[in-house]
Amino acid sequence: MSASPSSESIIPRPPDRVLFLCVHNSSRSQMAEGFARAMAPESTLVMSAGSEPRGVHAEAIAAMAEVGVDIRSQTSKSLAEVPWQQADLVVTLCNEGAEVCPQLATGVRRVHWLLPDPGAEPPERQPEAFREMRDEIRWRVASLWPRGD
């Protein structure tokens, strides 16, 4: 994993309505949603969804809790369950997510973060893989709403 997002992931204008899309909507997109809810202005619509939702992975919940972000109440959702048409930014977090991304209206920005699935790691490696992914996603999500400190 890189220490910083690729240049195409840095957004010139913070989004008002963002959708994080990953096929299973169980780990990467859930962590991104959790961080976005914590970092974005309150008025921001934050969504995550997948084409084949499977439930939020327990290791994702645990990794996020370690940094004080509670995603226990988040649920895996299909695209039909969120108002994705309202998004002004769609962030795909896996190749399959990019492939199933719906046809977007003109003017909707799209960013692709190709991130490996920490749930695909052997069980004994998963806790650390989820922590590494959490840290990478935190940095990337923070780049969407830079602070003027």
Structural class label:
alpha/beta
CATH architecture: 3-Layer(aba) Sandwich
**Count of runs of 4 or more consecutive helical residues:** 4
Q: Evaluate the radius of gyration.
A: 14 Å
| CATH homologous superfamily title | Response regulator
Description:
There is one protein chain. This protein is of the alpha/beta class and 149 residues long. The protein has a single domain, classed as Response regulator (Rossmann fold, 3-Layer(aba) Sandwich), CATH 3.40.50. It is built from four helices and four strands; from the N terminus they run E-H-E-H-E-H-E-H. It has helices at residues 28-39, 58-65, 95-100, 126-144; strands spanning 17-21, 45-49, 89-92, 109-112. The chain has a four-stranded parallel beta sheet with strand order 2-1-3-4. Strand 1, helix 1 and strand 2 (45-49) form a beta-alpha-beta unit. Helix 2 packs across helix 4. The protein is globular, with a radius of gyration of 14 Å.
